[in-house]
Batch of 2 targets.
Target 1
Amino acid sequence: MIARRDYALGEAHGGKVPDFLPPAVATTNSWRIELPAWCADQRNQMTGPADDADLVVKMLNSGAPGVMLDLEDSIANAWEHHSQGIKNILEALAGGLTYFDRKRNKAVGIHPSATVIFTRPRGLHLHQAGILPGELLPASLFDVAMVAYQVDFSALKHPLCIYIPKSESADEALWWRDLFQIIAR
């Protein structure tokens, strides 16, 4: 799947226009899903870098119905940023993330609220080095695994929410489905 992405990118850089599959019934018919009550309010959602505890706490205390903690576009693709982002996500999901406010000279934490926390992992086009010797792992898989296998599901106020990054095909959607089914076991 990732090799197909790389091949298509190489072809595009060579000037070849991509071939797209014909539209599927699912993309051409009028259909809707009913959202669960805990995430039905979609009026305003905020997005910010997961590695910035100050900003994460402020977003979660803003009153926005949804906040997406981003591990992809809004932080540098470097180990120190991702490890801090994962730590902040886990602490935010547990309700215990704080930062020190120098102006008020005190620690500020997350206020209880109904805000839904979404986590956006890095896209399938990015890799994580340094985990297995000589191997590159899909960064998406690494990020989701780091959150899903460390979070205390019993302490969550809503189900774990993953915001899927930049998918390019039905095959990728099926890959995500399979990953979520494995995590749910």
Target 2
Amino acid sequence: MIARGVLALGLAMGVAGGASGFELSVGASLKGQTERLSLSHDASFVDPILGNPTSLLEYGSASSIWAELSLSGRDMAESGLWFDLAAAVPLTGWGNFDDYDYLAGQLVFSHTSSGVAIGEGLTGALRVPMPFLGELRQDNLAIRPYLTASMERRTLSATGLSCGVICGPLPAVPSDLPVISHDLSGWQAGAGVWLAVELSQTQTLDVHAELVGGRLGVSDTHFLRTDLGPAPHIAYDFATLGVQVRAAYTHALTDALAFTAAAGGSLRRGTGTATFGASLPSPIGTFDADLVQMSGTLSLGLHATF
């Protein structure tokens, strides 16, 4: 349903744009992504023997391949109107997951490791010009301020279980069996600057830099725990702030077809709460929580203009 909504919005904007002379571009690309995502909470106020953070769940190197579709519009009548719309779904993924528990002084008293599986997901992003601020142009360089909004819904899972630095007795868990899953759902919105450089008649370089804020919810299910009630067992709620950058090189193969290679990176920090026993009538407790997410992407794609 979300995918249909994103595509419907893009088509509606495209139809409206077509009536006023928009040049439309449809693209398809494959994107490789690697990210580091960590969730932590502090329960040291409950018992001083516990550390701060008390627990750290970390996808230290989660890699994935995504398929991305895009729709862009440019006003050929020099009005300055434009839009970029993109949606992506994950195809496959892999990586490493670590679960740390700490005593006071950040003494590790438990550490387990797992593999990573990428579940279903969808991301979408929209960029439009910032009202009342047109582009600045100098020779072959154009500077365009803009507004951006994005959403995400996806699932990451830790599979299998092995002892890390130290741990107690572990159950035998097959390497492909999920032990923890995290369902992420959130949005971001903010402002950015687009630098467009015409390298030649057939080559362009586009650089985007964005500052965004938003919310992110994470539903955590610990499949091997029986003390937290029904799933999901832990509900994280974060307010987030992040920066995103992307550089794309485009080479026109014909008047209607272009090849694009792009690289990007992002950093997002979040503060909020972690509610344990979130599905119980009376949750076990709510604790301060932190989020750190870093990612890098590489993509290759083709774009058709009409």
